[in-house]
Amino acid sequence: QVQLVESGGGLVQPGGSLRLSCAASRNIFSINVMGWYRQAPGKERKLVATITSGGSTNYVDAVKGRFTISTDSAKNTVYLQMDSLKVEDTAVYYCHAIVNHIGGFWGQGTQVTVSS
Fold it and tell me: Which of 45, 58, 97, 101 is at 20 to 30 A from 37, Cα to Cα?
């Protein structure tokens, strides 16, 4: 099992920045893939970015060059640095973890609102 606790959401103006954090209940080196998803009102949950235990990253086109996913192994935490935020980035952001042969796990979500 993996418990994930997100934090860092909030209200920000267009062009601003936020950093989301996701603290995992186990050593992140034992987690094969960690990622961030988002779900806007009335829409399905979609992938934003992933990072593997080996450090490989992947981003959807909509956030490339603006968002950065990273980890801190000492804190068992994954981050999502979000810069140049747009109104269309408004969503609930969810942390996700995949542990091979065990399964996938979700955090509770954190609201990000981009508005002037």
Answer: 101
**Segment holding 66, helix H or strand E:** none
Residue 73 φ/ψ, nearest 5 degrees: -70, -30
Integer Cα distance of 38 and 48 in angstroms:
7
Strands (E), 13-90: 18-24, 33-39, 46-52, 57-59, 67-72, 77-82
Query: What DSSP designation does 25 have?
Result: S
The β-bridge partners of 106 are 96
Q: By C-alpha distance, which of 37, 34, 32 is closest to 97?
A: 34
Name the region of 113 (left: φ>0; alpha: ψ -120 to 50; beta: rest). beta
Cα–Cα distance measured from residue 95 to residue 37, given in angstroms and rounded to the nearest whole number: 6
